[in-house]
UniProtKB/TrEMBL annotation:
It comes from Halopelagius longus. Residues 4-87 form the Halobacterial output domain. This is Halobacterial output domain-containing protein. It comes from the Archaea. Pfam families: HalOD1 (PF18545). InterPro entries: HalOD1 (IPR040624).
Length: 89
């Protein structure tokens, strides 16, 4: 995740890339783009809470991770800002 990207946006971008989805329905599909649109992240986890847990505000960072399933992918958000996405088998 980039320093200015929120954890919730990083998750949506990563899952879209790994699983072959378009991240949002508000963007029109390109010509020939038949990729389905991701369900909202809030359908599986509270994005505001996720962002709050891993915000970079200069305070000491917590350690740990949050794991959840999103579009059949296993997602892990680590305290150091890494977002891991494992596609379904």
């Amino acid at each position: 995740m980039s320093p200015k990207e929120s954890p919730s946006n990083a998750v949506v971008s990563a899952v879209a890339a790994v699983a072959g989805y378009r991240p949002v329905a508000t963007e029109p599909a390109g010509e020939g783009d038949t990729a389905p649109v991701l369900d909202p992240l809030y359908s599986v986890i509270d994005p505001d809470a996720l962002d709050e847990m891993f915000r970079d505000d200069g305070s000491p960072a917590i350690s740990g991770r949050v794991r959840f399933s999103y579009h059949d992918c296993d997602v892990a958000v680590l305290s150091d800002g890494v977002v891991e996405v494992t596609p379904p088998e």
